[in-house]
Amino acid sequence: MSMNANDNGYGPKESQLMVQGQSQYVKRIYKDAQATFEEVLEINPRNVEAHFYLANIHYTLGQIGKGINCFKKVLEIDPYHTEAAICLSVLYNDIGKYEEAKLLFKEIDNRVKGKSKYSYSSSSSSLGSTDFSSSSSSSLSSHQSILSDPYINKKFAFKHYELGELYLTYDRYDEALFEYNKAVRLDPSNLEGRIQVAKVYSKKGLVSKAFEELRKLRNEYPNYLPARVALGVLYYGTGRVVEAQTEWQKVLSKDPRNPDAKMYIELSNAATETSA
């Protein structure tokens, strides 16, 4: 939401108010920003960015229902507004509407893959595919760059990760594995996702693949300590106590206060003494 209001073909008054509202939003003067964007909508009820700012303001102020309605309005006016669709999916997930969140997220995912186009109607809580006339081509091109935007990719990755967590909770390992892998592909910096991939492999009984994933992660990122902690847990779970303790000791050599490594070392030592 960093675009210049003067670059959107607004009239003088509308443009002035957009600049004012954006400034208030950045300064976190949300109530004033809300009033300003509402004034914009009195001038132009189809100002997409004003609706989008209002949606984020309502969300920030805890006005979830109003936020959802504003994101829906954005998608009514501009069905290709990818970020609004992502935000709406996140909101649905936050309030426990998991089916709506997954449906919307699936449509976003298909949109990115080029498999479908989504549209949202305020009169319905469901999405449907539709064909857009050539008059919509300018809207499509204006948002095409979003699809390769790392910021947007991270938002997609976050949702895939969340879905992976949800599937894992219900022991649906294949779906969880798919979602975690998708999250990692979209956001390679999501190293926790790779740990979760290894965890799912282990739960599926594919222990060698779990070892392979964690060793690769450890070797690529030797200072990423959670990988060593997780590798130690996997070693310990397969009865390789010495290797497990070696990994945890390496963690403590880099971070002497690491709570996980300290806990596992103490637990493994206690278990060893008990069995002796």
Task: Please report which band the strand proportion falls in: under 5%, 5-15%, 15-25%, 25-35%, 35-45% or over 45%.
Answer: under 5%
- The span between the termini is 63 Å
Name the structural class: mainly alpha
Any idea what the radius of gyration is?
A: 24 Å
Number of folding domains?
4
- Helical stretch count? 14
Instruction: Give the strand line-up of the largest sheet.
Output: 1-2
Structure explained in plain terms:
By secondary structure, the protein is an all-alpha fold. It has four domains: 1-62, Serine Threonine Protein Phosphatase 5, Tetratricopeptide repeat (Alpha Horseshoe); 71-148, no CATH class; 149-208, Tetratricopeptide repeat domain (Serine Threonine Protein Phosphatase 5, Tetratricopeptide repeat, Alpha Horseshoe), CATH 1.25.40.10; 222-276, Serine Threonine Protein Phosphatase 5, Tetratricopeptide repeat (Alpha Horseshoe). Helix content is 72%, strand content 2%. It has 14 helices and two strands. It has helices spanning 12-26, 30-43, 48-60, 64-77, 82-94, 98-113, 137-144, 150-169, 173-186, 191-203, 207-220, 225-237, 241-254, 259-275, and strands spanning 118-120, 127-129. Strands 1-2 form a two-stranded antiparallel sheet.
